[in-house]
Amino acid sequence: MGKSLSDKSYSEKYKKIIITILCFIVCVLFYALHSNIAYAVSNKNTSSNSSTQINKTTLDDKSESSLQDLKREYEQIKEEADSNSGTAKKLASEIREMSLRMADEAKLIEKSHAELDALDTKIEYAQRSLIEYEEDMAVEKEYLYNSIRMEYEDGNRRLLSIFLNVDKYSDIADRLEYSNKISSYINEKMSSYQFMMDMVDETRDSLDELKKQREEELVEYDRKRAKFKQAIDEMSALMKDARKKADNANALAGELETEIARMEAEERMLLMKNGYTDDASSSEVTYSGDGTQYYYKTPYPHTDSELLLLAGIIEAEAGKDHYPGMLAVGSVVMNRVESARFDNTIEGVIYADMQFEPVRTGRLAYILAKGPDNSCLSVAQEVLDGKRNVPNLYFKSEKYAKEHNIEGVNIGGNVFH
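Structure (tokenized):
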């Protein structure tokens, strides 16, 4: 009996121990399982966040790339539109010039027609005069012919009659003189009429030749006028085509400009959260980006000359091909304008003593004289509109920074620090 009670007591004790051990094992297993689940969820969230960040960065990059492509397309189309507009204006000017020349030719043609009418009148008068002279000449010829015949055929008889019928010898001389005068008159009259006939013929021939020349000139005028008209028609067709192309290009450029404005507005909203809130009072800025992370600040009211000046220094310091590098140079200039350490104008910052090497070497002046590249003008406009990609106040060329152990971020061949 005593032994049975003792065995029972031991049995109960072992049961409690076993139950306790089992409970401990269950707790350990539950904790381990909970930890694994939490770790898995954490990894999933981390992976999701990382994926989201990567996708967002990719989207931002794609958005920026699309925006730049769109701007390049816009610039190309605007150049095409300007080119076609210039062609149309040039053709219009040439058409006006040729129209004036045609008007001058028309005046010459009108003058030639008037001269031809006058020549026709003169020729008609000359022909009538010639007919009259010929009729008079015929009558006079008949009279002269009879006179000559009487003078020469009956000359001897008349001469004998003169001698026989005079009372005095002095009358013989008078009658001989009279006969000689008649002969002289006849000869003079013949010569006079012949001269008049020759003059009329010569005048008529001269008028005929002049008329022929005027008619040839009219033919040449008509040929020139036809040639001018053909050229004007061809240029008018070209001008119409150029204007149509210019209108189409301008319409497309307008659509692209609207799309660019929309994309820039979206980009501004997306990138505003990345904006630096420093007051630009410190030059020890910590920045580890690569120039492709953009943010926006308040737009800067500017003049056309300030836009050209900023574009010129961007081209002089960063070239005209590397977009982040160009934007970074422009950002530094505007960061200085906003900083209390520098002048508060673009001109004051750029022309500050010993600050920008292209100012000293004359390269900036050369670029401004020829006009900055369109890509630099576009970037300068973006910077003035508030777009930035670096918060720094200084940059050095890659070579200079390496030689002087200046650390910073290399963007497009310049180290920003």
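The two ends are 95 Å apart (CA to CA). Residues 9-42 form one domain.
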